Amino acid sequence: QSCSWREAQKRQANPISVRLPIAALTMQTLSILPLILCCCIALDHSLGAEFGHLGCFVDTATRDINGLDGWSTIGPYSVTWSSGGTVELSNMTVQLCSEICAYGNFRYFGLQHSSFCFCGNSYGRHGSAADSDCNMACAGNSAQICGSFGRNSVYRQVYNRPDSKYFALADRDYANLTSTSGPFYRTEQPVRSLTECVYRCDADCQAVLFHLDACHLLRFAVLPHELKTVAGKFAIRV
Ligand SMILES: *[C@@H]1O[C@H](CO)[C@@H](O)[C@H](O)[C@H]1NC(C)=O
Ligand SMILES: *[C@@H]1O[C@H](CO)[C@@H](O)[C@H](O)[C@H]1NC(C)=O
Description:
Layout: H1 2-12, H2 32-47, E1 50-58, E2 73-74, E3 77-78, E4 87-88, H3 94-102, E5 108-112, E6 116-120, E7 137-138, E8 141-145, E9 151-158, E10 167-169, E11 177-178, E12 185-188, H4 194-199, E13 207-211, E14 214-218, E15 233-237
Antiparallel strand pairs: 1-9, 1-11, 2-3, 4-6, 5-6, 5-9, 7-8, 10-15, 12-14, 13-14, 13-15
Bound molecules: 2-acetamido-2-deoxy-beta-D-glucopyranose (2 copies).
One 2-acetamido-2-deoxy-beta-D-glucopyranose binds next to loops.
InterPro entries: Kremen_rcpt, WSC_carb-bd
Membrane topology: Single-pass membrane protein
Protein name: WSC domain-containing protein
């Protein structure tokens, strides 16, 4: 089941016309068996998806983020309130909700009233709310905000695709990522071409931003705000 989740994630990838094969393909003939094993190992890594904060949004009885509607469990967690599906835990944190929603490969998650986690692929149908409306501490971490009555603190998930060997040019996509595991990119210079830049994107690298002779190697397939003013070509693993 773990592997099929991974496969589903790959199917959802949105390949576009430009494909840049990288030199790692030379290992392809040796790597068939390891790749099968890696499929399951890589999954656990992916479940530690990173996330970016999108703001405070209104919720009503018609749930805004409703991807768990009709589910009874997600991963090891029980889904409660059959209408609008949510996971309620007394140790809820932003990280835990991210991990829960990663089991379903959802793109967004929202935290409400301290302990409720919603997962889905869209958000915002009831509109945004003032940031100050989201003012309840998370049940599992009083330093974090987990929405309020009828308010979701909404986040976007950012997944790794560590085993893809192909890159494609993509539209620029920004998020304020949250992480405790170090910087979101490093820069190598001089690098002469986008192809060389992509070649240098290997371990712990999901995307590149190439501009003039600077190759920014990104840990996630999304641009951090620090790179907003940098022009250039953005390519992600697909
Ligand atoms: C992300 O961070 C930037 C810079 O700190 C800020 O201007 C922007 O409003 C933030 N965006 C979101 C969606 O939080
Ligand atoms: C949170 O609580 C659930 C259910 O009691 C438990 O399975 C899980 O391990 C806890 N998670 C953390 C991060 O403490």
